[in-house]
Amino acid sequence: SLNFNGVTLIHNSETTTENIELLTSSLNVVYNLIYFSKTSRRYYREFEQNTRVSLDDYFKELPKNADYLDQESSFSEEYRYYQEDGFVGFGDFITIGDNYSDSGFLPRAVAIHLSYIDGTGKIKVKHFVSDSNGDTSDIGGKFVEALDKLVAWCNQQNIHTRAVEIFRDLQQRGHFPGLGTLKKLSIMNHIELVITNI
Questions:
Q1: What is the dihedral of CA 99, 104, 110, 113, to 10 degrees?
Q2: Taking the CB of residue 87, how many other CB atoms lie within 10 A of it?
Q3: How high is the pLDDT of residue 24?
Q4: Which of 79, 91, 96 has the alpha carbon at shortest distance from 31?
Q5: Bridging pattern class, strands 111-117 and 123-129
Q6: From edge to edge, which strands make up the β-sheet containing 72-76?
Q7: Exposure winner among 76, 121, 127, 167, fewest CB in 10 A?
Q8: Region class of 20: left (phi > 0), else alpha (psi between -120 and 50), else beta
Q9: Is 12 helix (H, G, I), strand (E, B) or coil?
Q10: What distances in angstroms separate CA 50 from CA 7, 145, 159, one per listed residue?
Q11: Model confidence over 3-17: pLDDT tens digits?
Q12: CB-CB contact of 9 with 23 (8 Å)
Protein backbone atom coordinates (compact mmCIF):
# COMPACT_ATOMS: atom_id res chain seq x y z
CA SER A 1 0.00 0.00 0.00
CA LEU A 2 1.08 3.58 -0.62
CA ASN A 3 2.27 5.64 2.29
CA PHE A 4 1.33 9.31 1.90
CA ASN A 5 -0.12 12.14 3.93
CA GLY A 6 -2.39 13.39 1.19
CA VAL A 7 -2.48 14.73 -2.32
CA THR A 8 -2.77 18.05 -4.08
CA LEU A 9 -5.12 18.14 -7.04
CA ILE A 10 -4.23 20.66 -9.73
CA HIS A 11 -7.35 21.76 -11.58
CA ASN A 12 -6.25 22.66 -15.12
CA SER A 13 -9.85 22.18 -16.23
CA GLU A 14 -13.20 21.83 -14.54
CA THR A 15 -14.66 18.51 -13.48
CA THR A 16 -18.12 17.54 -12.26
CA THR A 17 -19.35 17.71 -8.68
CA GLU A 18 -19.66 13.90 -8.77
CA ASN A 19 -16.00 13.52 -9.73
CA ILE A 20 -14.97 15.93 -7.00
CA GLU A 21 -16.93 13.95 -4.41
CA LEU A 22 -15.43 10.68 -5.70
CA LEU A 23 -11.87 12.04 -5.53
CA THR A 24 -12.44 13.57 -2.10
CA SER A 25 -13.86 10.34 -0.66
CA SER A 26 -11.14 8.08 -2.09
CA LEU A 27 -8.09 10.34 -1.60
CA ASN A 28 -6.91 12.49 1.24
CA VAL A 29 -7.07 15.77 -0.70
CA VAL A 30 -5.04 18.30 1.24
CA TYR A 31 -5.07 21.06 -1.40
CA ASN A 32 -7.11 21.90 -4.46
CA LEU A 33 -4.90 24.09 -6.62
CA ILE A 34 -7.30 25.95 -8.90
CA TYR A 35 -5.78 27.39 -12.08
CA PHE A 36 -8.01 30.39 -12.76
CA SER A 37 -6.93 30.94 -16.37
CA LYS A 38 -8.32 27.50 -17.17
CA THR A 39 -11.44 27.39 -14.96
CA SER A 40 -14.36 29.70 -14.30
CA ARG A 41 -14.07 32.17 -11.42
CA ARG A 42 -16.83 30.38 -9.46
CA TYR A 43 -15.41 26.86 -9.83
CA TYR A 44 -13.38 27.16 -6.61
CA ARG A 45 -16.60 27.27 -4.54
CA GLU A 46 -16.94 23.48 -5.07
CA PHE A 47 -14.10 22.86 -2.60
CA GLU A 48 -13.70 23.08 1.15
CA GLN A 49 -12.25 26.46 2.02
CA ASN A 50 -9.28 25.01 3.93
CA THR A 51 -8.13 23.17 0.76
CA ARG A 52 -8.36 26.04 -1.75
CA VAL A 53 -5.20 27.42 -3.34
CA SER A 54 -5.40 29.95 -6.18
CA LEU A 55 -3.06 29.65 -9.16
CA ASP A 56 -2.66 31.95 -12.13
CA ASP A 57 -0.11 33.02 -14.72
CA TYR A 58 0.58 36.72 -14.21
CA PHE A 59 3.73 36.96 -16.35
CA LYS A 60 3.13 38.93 -19.56
CA GLU A 61 5.08 36.95 -22.13
CA LEU A 62 6.18 38.79 -25.27
CA PRO A 63 7.34 37.12 -28.51
CA LYS A 64 10.98 38.29 -28.36
CA ASN A 65 13.32 39.45 -25.58
CA ALA A 66 13.88 42.73 -27.44
CA ASP A 67 10.14 43.46 -27.10
CA TYR A 68 10.70 43.99 -23.35
CA LEU A 69 13.10 46.91 -23.92
CA ASP A 70 12.33 49.76 -21.49
CA GLN A 71 9.22 47.94 -20.24
CA GLU A 72 7.69 47.29 -16.88
CA SER A 73 4.75 44.88 -16.42
CA SER A 74 2.07 44.59 -13.79
CA PHE A 75 2.17 41.19 -12.11
CA SER A 76 -0.09 40.50 -9.12
CA GLU A 77 -1.39 41.49 -5.72
CA GLU A 78 -2.48 37.96 -4.84
CA TYR A 79 -0.03 37.76 -1.92
CA ARG A 80 -2.06 40.52 -0.22
CA TYR A 81 -5.58 39.25 -0.87
CA TYR A 82 -5.59 35.45 -1.15
CA GLN A 83 -6.77 34.90 2.44
CA GLU A 84 -9.56 37.45 2.34
CA ASP A 85 -10.67 35.88 -0.98
CA GLY A 86 -11.08 32.50 0.76
CA PHE A 87 -7.85 30.68 -0.07
CA VAL A 88 -5.22 29.07 2.15
CA GLY A 89 -2.47 29.70 -0.38
CA PHE A 90 -1.65 31.07 -3.81
CA GLY A 91 0.69 30.26 -6.64
CA ASP A 92 2.03 31.83 -9.80
CA PHE A 93 4.44 30.90 -12.56
CA ILE A 94 7.06 33.30 -11.27
CA THR A 95 8.88 35.36 -13.94
CA ILE A 96 8.94 32.57 -16.53
CA GLY A 97 5.23 32.08 -17.20
CA ASP A 98 3.31 28.91 -17.97
CA ASN A 99 4.76 28.37 -21.45
CA TYR A 100 7.61 26.03 -20.49
CA SER A 101 10.16 25.19 -23.15
CA ASP A 102 13.22 23.00 -22.67
CA SER A 103 14.68 23.97 -26.02
CA GLY A 104 17.13 26.81 -26.10
CA PHE A 105 18.54 29.06 -28.80
CA LEU A 106 20.85 32.02 -28.96
CA PRO A 107 18.74 35.15 -28.52
CA ARG A 108 19.32 38.46 -30.28
CA ALA A 109 18.64 40.22 -26.97
CA VAL A 110 19.31 39.29 -23.34
CA ALA A 111 16.47 40.12 -20.96
CA ILE A 112 16.55 39.86 -17.17
CA HIS A 113 13.10 39.91 -15.55
CA LEU A 114 13.11 41.19 -11.96
CA SER A 115 9.99 41.29 -9.81
CA TYR A 116 9.65 43.91 -7.10
CA ILE A 117 6.94 45.51 -4.99
CA ASP A 118 6.07 49.07 -5.93
CA GLY A 119 5.04 51.88 -3.59
CA THR A 120 1.38 50.78 -3.67
CA GLY A 121 2.12 47.15 -2.70
CA LYS A 122 1.68 45.68 -6.18
CA ILE A 123 4.16 43.17 -7.56
CA LYS A 124 5.55 44.40 -10.86
CA VAL A 125 8.23 43.05 -13.17
CA LYS A 126 10.97 45.33 -14.45
CA HIS A 127 12.63 44.12 -17.65
CA PHE A 128 16.33 44.86 -18.21
CA VAL A 129 17.29 44.28 -21.85
CA SER A 130 20.52 44.55 -23.79
CA ASP A 131 20.88 47.26 -26.46
CA SER A 132 23.12 45.58 -29.08
CA ASN A 133 20.35 43.36 -30.42
CA GLY A 134 21.09 43.23 -34.14
CA ASP A 135 22.37 39.64 -34.16
CA THR A 136 23.12 36.66 -31.87
CA SER A 137 26.83 37.37 -31.38
CA ASP A 138 28.47 38.23 -28.04
CA ILE A 139 25.84 36.98 -25.60
CA GLY A 140 28.21 37.83 -22.73
CA GLY A 141 28.38 41.45 -23.91
CA LYS A 142 24.60 41.60 -24.17
CA PHE A 143 24.38 40.25 -20.60
CA VAL A 144 26.66 43.05 -19.35
CA GLU A 145 24.41 45.65 -20.99
CA ALA A 146 21.30 44.25 -19.30
CA LEU A 147 23.12 43.67 -16.00
CA ASP A 148 24.44 47.24 -15.82
CA LYS A 149 20.88 48.54 -16.17
CA LEU A 150 19.61 46.13 -13.49
CA VAL A 151 22.30 46.99 -10.95
CA ALA A 152 21.95 50.76 -11.49
CA TRP A 153 18.16 50.53 -11.03
CA CYS A 154 18.44 48.28 -7.93
CA ASN A 155 20.97 50.69 -6.41
CA GLN A 156 18.58 53.59 -7.06
CA GLN A 157 15.65 51.64 -5.56
CA ASN A 158 17.75 50.26 -2.66
CA ILE A 159 16.90 46.62 -3.51
CA HIS A 160 19.04 44.01 -1.76
CA THR A 161 17.55 40.53 -2.25
CA ARG A 162 20.03 37.65 -2.31
CA ALA A 163 19.60 37.32 -6.07
CA VAL A 164 20.28 41.03 -6.61
CA GLU A 165 23.43 40.72 -4.48
CA ILE A 166 24.54 37.88 -6.78
CA PHE A 167 23.85 40.11 -9.80
CA ARG A 168 26.00 42.82 -8.19
CA ASP A 169 28.78 40.27 -7.62
CA LEU A 170 28.59 39.10 -11.25
CA GLN A 171 28.91 42.71 -12.40
CA GLN A 172 31.86 43.35 -10.09
CA ARG A 173 33.67 40.20 -11.26
CA GLY A 174 32.75 40.71 -14.92
CA HIS A 175 31.44 37.15 -15.05
CA PHE A 176 28.72 35.85 -17.38
CA PRO A 177 27.25 32.70 -15.77
CA GLY A 178 25.10 31.61 -18.74
CA LEU A 179 21.49 32.30 -19.67
CA GLY A 180 20.11 29.51 -17.46
CA THR A 181 21.59 31.13 -14.36
CA LEU A 182 19.88 34.43 -15.20
CA LYS A 183 16.53 32.63 -15.18
CA LYS A 184 17.39 30.92 -11.87
CA LEU A 185 18.33 34.24 -10.26
CA SER A 186 15.09 35.81 -11.49
CA ILE A 187 13.14 32.91 -9.93
CA MET A 188 15.15 33.14 -6.70
CA ASN A 189 14.44 36.88 -6.44
CA HIS A 190 10.70 36.36 -6.93
CA ILE A 191 10.47 33.61 -4.31
CA GLU A 192 12.34 35.72 -1.75
CA LEU A 193 10.16 38.74 -2.55
CA VAL A 194 6.95 36.81 -1.94
CA ILE A 195 8.16 34.90 1.14
CA THR A 196 9.36 38.03 2.89
CA ASN A 197 6.13 39.94 2.19
CA ILE A 198 3.31 37.48 2.98
A1: 30
A2: 24
A3: 82
A4: 91
A5: antiparallel
A6: 72-76, 123-129, 111-117
A7: 121
A8: alpha
A9: coil
A10: 14, 47, 35
A11: 668 889 899 998 888
A12: yes
Side-by-side strand order, sheet with 52-56:
7-11, 29-35, 52-56, 89-92
What phi, psi does 65 have (nearest 5°)?
-55, -40
Question: What is the structure's pLDDT at 146?
Answer: 97
Alpha carbon distance 136, 169 (integer Å): 25
Contact yes or no for 76/58 (Cβ under 8 A): yes
Predicted confidence (pLDDT) per residue in 135-170, tens digit: 888 999 999 999 999 999 999 999 999 999 999 999
Which one-letter DSSP state was computed for residue 129? E
For residues 60-87, average pLDDT? 91
Strand ranges inside 36-145, DSSP E: 52-56, 72-76, 89-92, 111-117, 123-129
The DSSP element (H or E) to which 157 belongs, if any, is: helix 139-157
Closest C-alpha to 147, from 92, 193, 185: 185
pLDDT tens-digit profile of 59-68? 998 989 999 9
**The one-letter amino acid at 15:** T
**What pLDDT score was predicted for residue 99?**
78
pLDDT at 26 > cutoff 80: yes
